[in-house]
Amino acid sequence: MNNIITHINKLKAELDVLLPLNKEAQAKLWGKFRLEWNYNSNHIEGNTLSYGETKLLFRLGDDFKAQNNSLKDVQEMRVHDVAIEMLKQWANDKDRLISESEIRALNETILVKSFWADAVTPSGQKTRRQIIPGEYKKQPNHVQLKSGELFEYAEPAEVPQKMQELLDWYKVENENSHPIIVAAFLHYKFVCIHPFDDGNGRVSRLLMNYHLLRNDYPPVIIKSKDKDSYLYALQQADAGNTDAFTKYVGKQLIWSLDLQLKAAKGESIEEEEDLYKEIEVWKKKISNKNQPVVSKTCNVVYTLLQHSLNSLKTRFEKEMNIYHEFFKKYNFESKTYKNKNLPPHIEKLNKFFNKITNTPDHIRYKDINKIEWVYSFFQPKTVGLQNMAIRYTVFFDQYKYTIQYNGDKIINKSYNVKLSEEEIEKIVKEISRHTFERIKRLLA
Predict the structure, then answer these.
(1) Which of 106, 340, 402, 442 has the fewest CB atoms nearer than 10 Å to its CB?
(2) Could you tell me if 54 and 297 are in contact, meaning their C-beta atoms sit under 8 angstroms apart?
(3) Overall number of domains in the chain
(4) Whether residues 266 and 190 fall in one domain
């Protein structure tokens, strides 16, 4: 560890002589850190945006259109960027330290709104629990390791005291220890508490970098491709070898200092892999431009139904089965809507086409507007429940189709882009989550 600190001190001393950077170099350097920080910290937690898509998102802003990613992933990246900006402002205030309310604000910012998530009870039973942004956990969030051993974080009742102890520790160590040691321990101690139901990993990395920025160091970027090493270093700390995690964080800081030093010397801060990532973005843009524009036709709608939407329908129907025990009767149906007042010759042509192909009428109508799939529940078994209908709708425009649920647009795609298995699963889970919330609210 001493060698790493010596290396860090040497780079920092060399850098301080060259500071401040000119505005252009500073903007370019921060743009690089901002991109790496947002992409990697979210990607570690399962965000599906690629590096190139993340780059486009921050380059285009509100003009960015998600292609094969959910709106949730796009929003997640945007709000994390907001959290980084909040953190920068707090770090610039050298006269005060971050507060408990601000840590809760970070969690609230990155999670945005309440949602329901799968969980496991202490007895091992599967359940669901509500995640409320900015609020400390109300149920244990221990995790089962691959070995089968249960790793226990702080109990819910302990969280307020543990968080106060963390901040008291920080007030003392902030002045007495090397910044990299304090930053690494701030991250690790927060993870051990795991105060929130979700977002703990991202907040821990935000706190670590808060301390570094406050002490005029660049942020540490934990690369998602190095996730296994990162988790292993945390596991070593859990086993009592906290130096292992501090060393790991120190090595990542050296990468950031090297990058900052290059910028200060006027050298290129683009890495070799950045070229290939840039090529990836360029290829995607070119590919999208070269794709033929597909207009809505009978065959286009039919193909979409057969090879994409029917899979969604089947998965949706299966998911709704888990709510059967609350009702005596249930029914699943589809409703098709098309343009009214079709010209007579189009009606005649459609009927003729249907006759010779032996294909259901609603599939062969070119003028179909939307299809609605409805799963209805009747005769509740539990007092307080009521009949309810769960539905999602697919709208067919001239060049795109849109899937909506509960009035919200989930996915918007060109006809030549089919739903992936991952997208289907996400859509179904989103609908199921809202269904569960609705039932639980009625029974509260």
Answers:
(1) 340
(2) no
(3) 2
(4) yes
The yes-or-no verdict on residue 342 having pLDDT over 50 is no
CB distance 229 to 241 below 8 Å: no
Summarize the confidence of residues 367-391 as an average pLDDT: 89
Q: What is the pLDDT of residue 69?
A: 59
With contact defined as beta carbons under 8 Å apart, do 374 and 332 qualify? yes
- Residue 242 placed within a domain: yes
Q: Is 296 helix (H, G, I), strand (E, B) or coil?
A: coil
- Are residues 235 and 354 part of one domain? no
Token pair 């796009």 is found at 74
Sign of the dihedral defined by the CA atoms of residues 243, 245, 248, 250, in that order: negative
Burial class (CB in 10 A: 0-12, 13-18, 19+), 49: buried
Helix (H) or strand (E) holding 210: helix 200-214
Does residue 152 share a domain with residue 178? yes
Whole-angstrom Cα distance, residue 160 to residue 141?
15
Distance CA 213, CA 41 (A): 17
Q: Residue 302's domain spans which residues?
A: 298-443
| Residues 240, 329 within the same domain | no
Do 345 and 242 reside in the same domain of the chain? no
Residues contacting 67, CB < 8 A, separation 6+? 53, 288, 413, 417
Tell me: the pLDDT tens digits for 391-415? 999 988 888 888 988 777 778 888 8
Alpha carbons 234 and 255: distance in angstroms, whole number = 19
CB 329 within 8 A of CB 380: no
pLDDT greater than 50 at residue 388: yes
pLDDT at 194 over 90: yes
DSSP conformation class of 19: P
Per-residue confidence (pLDDT) for residue 11, from 0 to 100 = 96
Q: Answer yes or no: are the C-beta atoms of 104 and 74 closer than 8 Å.
A: no
Shared domain check, 378 and 233: no
Strands 400-405 and 408-414: antiparallel
DSSP 416-427: TSPPPHHHHHHH
Q: Is the pLDDT of residue 284 over 90?
A: no
Residue that is written with structure tokens 């307020």 in the block: 160
